[in-house]
Amino acid sequence: MADTQAIDSVLNESRVFAPPEDFSRRAHIRSMQDYQRLWDEAEKDPQKYWGDRAREELFWKEPFQTVLEWKPPHARWFIEGRTNLAYNCLDRHLPKLQDKPAILFEGEPGDRRSVTYGELSRQVNQLANGLKSLGVKKGDRVGIYLPMVPEAAVAMLACARVGAVHSVVFGGFSSEALQERMKDMGAKVLLTADGGWRKGAVVPLMKNVEAALPNAPSIEKVVVLTRTGDGKLPEGPKYMAWDTLVRGQPDTCEPEWVESEHPLFILYTSGSTGKPKGVLHTTAGYALNASLTTRWVFDLREDDVYWCTADVGWVTGHTYVVYGPLMNGVTTVLYEGAPTQPGPDRFWDIIERYKATILYTAPTAIRAFMRLGDGPVKQHDLSSLRLLGSVGEPINPEAWMWYRDVIGGGRCPVVDTWWQTETGSIMISPLPGATPTKPGSATFPLPGIHAEILDRDGNRVPKGQGGLLFVTKPWPSMLRTVYGDPERYVSTYFSELPGMYFTGDGARTDADGYIWLMGRVDDVVNVAGHRLGTAEVESALVAHAKVSEAAVVGRPDDLKGTALVAFVTLKQGNAPSDALKKELATHVGKEIGAIARPDEIRFAEGLPKTRSGKIMRRLLRDVAAGKKSTQDTTTLEDLNVLAALGQNDE
Ligand code: ATP
Ligand code: MG
What we know:
The strands form 9 sheets. The protein has a 7-stranded mixed β-sheet, sandwiched between helices. The protein is an alpha/beta fold. The two termini are 35 Å apart.
């Protein structure tokens, strides 16, 4: 089957959890019949479905006539319409939500601020006017390199207000990564801070900016927020204090009414599979899906205190920290620092104090908390929670169960949401009031999303078998191009099958039609004629009581073609040993079969991850093969982890 790229599935997970009845009763989408009705409506007449949704969901300064123009692989949505995303997030909620907290901010050192919709709106307008005073015009690119403080949201919204294209660079990135991105996008202004707090220390943003600036000549002005220091600016005419820029600016600002297809932001992908791509999103289609998916997937209610833990430097921070929640008028929690600062219970402490109702985080965080045991969780009252979400990687069934039982007290539905920077918004996910969930499955595509599992020839693969995950029809929040590299847009996403978006991920459906993500196609391991997705073997390892996290890669092997190498992190209190290696290999063999039994197990203190918490298996492949890596590591979280793995060679 290798020629059609089918992937063999070995995982068997049969637990099913129906949505709690009282949850369904109040939900936006209450049953699978409701879901099916929406799905059918979208399938029958996509133009009408998306057109109706767009009219309901967004404020239009000028209406659109054409819902979609699709000249594969290029889509234009809601063509003649004009809108403004900042207006949709703020103005239209005023005066009703004037005094409602939009953002509940907590800094790592413990400082707190509540920013109401009214205040947020005024701050955005002042900064928007400030940007205009610097000569920023519609279409200009503005870089944002800030810690997780309310000003990060203010910066994004101010750009949207004046029609500038923002590009947020994660505050933890080095000066090289910053400089590369500023150059690639040709940013005119950079909005930054002197520093931010992380793990009890200052992240030296300003130092990185100073180092990057000489090589980013397009930048005319650097606007500096004071967060950690004394407000002293670096020497030079390019630097200006944030306070100086906004002081005295009017707190009203007429929005720039942009065309639907006006670029909203450029965001670089996580770099799990290679050099990051500058994904470009435009205004109306992105806004529509951001708003709709946030309300449906998180089943938002007016009184929710919603917490998505992602950094605004990632797409999850764009869609589910800033735009989606604000368009829906809910209160969102913003936390600056590390999850375990000053203690292992910081997250749970935040949930208890703010009475958060929804938590949306990543498997990497969940596994890290599992590793610490239930103790820190049990110190806090988490009864305010009513819904849990996961995003970023396949969530191993055991981590899903722990999330549900220990964090959710067994009463909160868990939504495992599959999507990408490129998709702009959630594509495959349970709807918590409707979908019976299975641990580790992202379940079904949302209405209007044609996620299909195909082989290389475009045939649907039979149920139970793995294949390539495609989105076969355009959707409003799809990326429009790779900024500055239109060819890469076509070659990366539309060259497997013409006119169909290739996600790069492998997936399968089970007998009930549930979708299971199997990991990235690049990471598939070919063992003795069987093509295995990494997710299933890793999940089998994580199901072992002593294992916290696992990454599986292939290593060239004379005999088998490819040998399976597993890198394993143990839960606290467990020591590595040869006996444990044998025990784990046997465990995998028993759980999912002999072909998936690792040939080699290596214990590791940590695994190489992107800064957004994804395991970088491409780097582990080199380690497993004993090769020195020459790959792009600009988004790697911690070079030391990689170095330690290299020395581990037996
Ligand atoms: P790059 O494209 O540069 O390699 P990346 O793919 O890690 O980086 P993102 O867009 O941040 O960048 O991540 C999207 C990917 O994350 C998906 O393609 C998928 O592999 C993985 N992913 C996200 N959510 C889930 C999920 N719920 N289940 C399984 N995998 C997920
Ligand atoms: Mg990707």
